[in-house]
Amino acid sequence: MFASRPAQLARRTAGIAALAVLVITGATTTANAGAAAVSDVPDRRIRVATFNIHHAQGVDDKLNLQRVADVISTGQADIVGLQEVDRHWSERSEFADQASWLAERLHMHVVYGANLDLDPLTAGAPRRQYGTAILSRYPILDWDNTLLPRYDGHEQRGLLRALVQVRGARVQVFNTHLQHNNANERLEQVRAIQTLVAAREEPVVLTGDLNARPDAPEIRALSDTLSDTWPGAGVGDGYTYPATGPSARIDYVFTSADVRVESAAVVQSDASDHLPLFVDLLVGRRD
Q1: R_g (Cα) of the chain, nearest Å
Q2: Which residues contact 39 (CB under 8 A, 6 or more apart)?
Q3: CA-CA distance, 285 to 262, in Å (whole number)?
Q4: What is the reported pTM?
Q5: How far apart are CA 71 and CA 271, in angstroms?
Q6: CA–CA distance from 90 to each of 12, 130, 134 (Å)?
């Protein structure tokens, strides 16, 4: 379903060669011709993944963050939206900074959205945080985390954003994890996400555990703004949950209309109670 890494590298090398020709041509022609050459720069191919890692507790109930790293590495993801990521949270994850650990192990850039942010259990220890993360092989130019609407007594959710520079093209990557037990709350969260996404000029990629099936009103509402990548690019039902005997598609990659989708696949894994979704995309400049 996915192209091999050698084939991808060949295409990327060809793209770099084409770009070099454009630069040389632009240097020997008029300024207007140079501007036209820039607009002809080919789209960038990126592999995006979304993965609810369940604080690295696998289907065997064992904590193993290396398994999560192996899934990302084997899948050759360029950008990954992670949900349920602990940062010095508790004994369940050995108080590790999971986002930083994964970034270091995978040699990727990282930003973290702390949707829960608590005092440490002992004085002087780091704050206890729980939320989402974005990993990227490409530079992250800026980022923020916006808290989403929350009903009384429910967990705080957020929308993490990272502006990623993909070989000259800027892409706004969003990552979220919506409320699991209230459809009306999810719909309010989706409305907030739509407003935040609409404020950005660059191509948009949204990853997340949305805790709703494709026919849910909140997913249909989100589809008014962004496109679900699975129906046109995936094969089969696309179920991502639970990891053992999956029966629901609740993990998604959505894109703006100016992002082309090549392929999508759910990958088998025992690293979490969710299965990861990998999607190959083509992104370029938005003029």
Answers
A1: 19
A2: 285, 287
A3: 18
A4: 0.86
A5: 8
A6: 42, 10, 21
Structure tokens at 134: 């974005």
CB-based burial label for 115 (10 Å; 0-12, 13-18, 19+): buried
- Contacts of 224-228 spanning 24+ positions with Cβ under 8 A: 224/194, 225/194, 225/197, 225/198, 226/197, 226/254, 226/255, 226/256, 227/254, 227/255, 227/256, 227/257, 227/261, 228/252, 228/254
- Read off the tokens for 265: 């696949």
* Dihedral angle, C-alpha 99, 102, 108, 112, nearest 10 °: -10
DSSP structure class, residue 1: -
Decide: residue 234, CB within 10 A, 0-12 exposed, 13-18 middle, 19+ buried. Answer: buried
Count the Cβ atoms, other than its own, within 10 Å of residue 181: 10
Q: Tokens 């091999």 belong to which residue? A: 4
The 10s digit of each residue's pLDDT in 27-58 is 333 344 443 444 456 799 999 999 999 999 99
- Cβ-in-10-Å burial (0-12, 13-18, 19+) of 73 comes to middle
Structure tokens at 147: 């808290």
What is the pLDDT averaged over residues 235-251? 97
The single residue listed with the structure tokens 């009103």 is 217
Intra-chain end-to-end CA distance of the chain, in Å: 31
pLDDT in tens, 107-163: 999 999 999 999 999 999 999 999 999 999 999 999 999 999 999 999 999 999 999
The DSSP call for residue 88 is S
80-100 average pLDDT score: 98
For helices 31-39 and 5-27, what crossing angle results, to 10°? 170
**Rounded CA separation 131/82 (Å):** 9
